[in-house]
Every structure is written in structure tokens, then in C-alpha cells.
Specification:
This protein is α/β, with parallel strands linked by helices and 339 residues long. 42% of the residues lie in helices and 17% in strands. The radius of gyration is 21 Å and the shape is elongated. The relative contact order is 0.18. The structure holds 6-O-phosphono-beta-D-fructofuranose.
Length: 339
Amino acid sequence: MKIGVLTGGGDCPGLNPAIRGITLRAEDFSDEVVGMLDGWKGLLEKETMPISLSDVDEIMRMGGTILGTSRTNPYKKEGGAEICKKNMAELGLEALIAIGGEDTLGVAAKLHKEFGLPVVGVPKTMDNDLSCTDYTFGFDTSVTCAIDALERMRDTGRSHRRIMVLEVMGRHAGWVALFTAIGGGADWVLIPEIEPDVDKMCEHLIKVKERKGYALVVVSEGIKLSHKKKEEIDEFGHMILQKRGVGQHIAEEIEQRTKIETRVAVIGHIQRGGPPTLFDRILGVRVGVFAVDLVHSKRFGKMAALSGNNIIEADLFDATGRLKLVDKSWYDLALTLFK
Ligand code: F6P
């Protein structure tokens, strides 16, 4: 078979292992693998590259994606979905593996439903907010990076007896912030799913500062803010959250209310780069291999998903219909650890 592969949306560590898994499994069937460059843009513009074994020999340890990515939405271009269909035929693609999050896989689901295109999905996102899969690759690496940042902030916060605020990504789900706070031993966390109680947080931080001499707060970029700022939107209608200055705003509030010197760091895209962790490497190759098996069993409109320790099939519409958000039991666990 001739199989197309694309990576769309924000990059994350684990994409290259997934491409490697796809390529090596395709070899078992003597398939030809062709990469679309820069996500859906590559299919719309027929910008492609062949992927051979030598292309994937050394990519296991590489962050990012060798195919490039973009936030191109074919449904935002005049006749874009029809062009995808036409170009798949012209390129001779008998199947397409779309590696992406909610947006990229949402397009894949629609193209399959509306045009019967032979598409399967591979889930990725550092936000870990995709339904029907326990974890997505990219998440583990980004939290590992954020915990490293938090630990560095602890050292300097302790020396200066300050409150340190770390702003992390994660969009509208608090997984990255929550796992960073729990895994890094922070003293408070603010996540989009829970309305921020700034009074309660400050009261707690004063207590922590008295006991330890410093305190650490993790804040998710997607929390609700009382002040409204003009929001910029991408092609999928998402706010560009890094421009809201959430961490800075929270740090100022804390300093004003507690009268304790407070500093903020925003790690931004640093948490999206670097070599994937072992977890993300293994998950990446597993879902990549499984996606090729889905293609060969003609399970189009499906995606490879992690359930417990098994890779299973999930429906693309179910996976992209609603976000997987942090539930109260996870938040309660964090609260238990803040003393
Ligand atoms: O969805 C992944 C993510 O890293 C979000 O956490 C963040 O809000 C967004 O992408 C940033 O996107 P961009 O790289 O387009 O600025």
C-alpha cells in the first residue's frame, strides 16, 4: 500500500518515535510511506517527502517532528476538504495516518465521515486532553521538563525567601500544571477546571512561607482570569493563551495580598522540545505500529489509544468530541498534599 503520514498542531516529543513505528511496521507489509509536510498544509499543497528506513534510523531521541507541522485547518480554506480528497487520489494514497490532537484528528474524523477518506489517527499532545486514551505522548516529557524548572525555582526561592510562580502550558486542561505541582512538590496549583480562590491560596502561602521560608505555585496558562484582555485566535478558533500573561498576573496578586516578594517564570515552548522521555518513546512507537495495523485491517475513522497498558482502537469522533479534563478527585489529591 501507499500510506501518507502527517503531523499536525503543536509539536511534542514522541512524534518522531511514532513516525519510526509507522515506517518500520509498514516495512513488514512492503508498504510505501510518504510524509505530508507541515500537517494538513502538505496535503492541501501536495508538498510531500518519501520516508525510508534510513530517515527513521536515528530519530527516536529527537524532539519535534521530521515532517514539520502547522495549525492549518482545511475546513477554513475554500474547498479545502475537497482538495484533500482530490490530492489523496492524485498522490495515490490508499490510506492516511494523521498524527495530532483534538484539532488535527477532528479534521481526520470529518474527512472520513464526509468523504469516506481512508484515514486513521495517532493521538499526541503535551496537554493530555484527548478523550478515549489514558495518556498521549508529549505529556510525560513536558511535565518532566516543568518539574525540572520548578526544582530550580525552589533553589532560588529558598535562598531569597520568596514565593515563586511557574506558568505552564496545557491549554484548557490542567493536567500539565497538576502533575507538575504534585510531581514537583509545589504548595499550590491553579488549573482551568477549578475557579481560582486567590484568598484561600494566599492564606495558605503565608502559612507555608512561615514554615519553610518560601513557597511554590504552579499555574496553568488556561485559568479563568477576572480581568479581560483582547484574545488572539488561531485557525481552529483557539485563544493564543501564552499572550495572556497569566503567571505575571497571579504573581502580582500574590505579592500584593501577602506582602511577600514574589517572582514568576514562564517556561512556554521550552516544555515542548527536547528528547522524549522513555514513556513517550515507547508510547509513540506503539501507537505508530498499531496505526499501520488499523490501516491493514481497514479500520478507518479509528485511532490507536492507550487503555491501561494496552493499545486499543477508539473512534475518532468519540476521541475529539469533548476534551478530557481534570476531575475533582485529582484536584483533591493535590489539595491533600498542600500542607
Ligand atoms: O496544544 C499544545 C500547546 O502547547 C498548548 O499547551 C499551548 O497553548 C499551545 O500548544 C501553543 O501553541 P503554539 O505553539 O501555536 O503557540
